[in-house]
């Protein structure tokens, strides 16, 4: 029988900051979960692309959207908004930005291990 574990994003294992954003990571049960906060004016191409040095975001995401709205544009041209209560599955190859004046907060169960980290 396994051992129960719990963590809190108030005391993350790692924090990464980037222009208009912050990522808090906790590792639990052998998995890393990230909570990202994107401030109004945040856009992947201007805030994270200079760190990632890729044409578009190559991190796949499986996210629960807590608050705010993110507009997502896939490399294939499809686009949509995600807001509170939405769950999104994004393969590699996308851009995103905050819509409106409220920070967008997402909890990501995949893809944050190397997010906003220089390679």
TrEMBL record:
Q: What is this protein called?
A: Cupin domain-containing protein
Organism lineage string: Bacteria, Pseudomonadati, Pseudomonadota, Gammaproteobacteria, Pseudomonadales
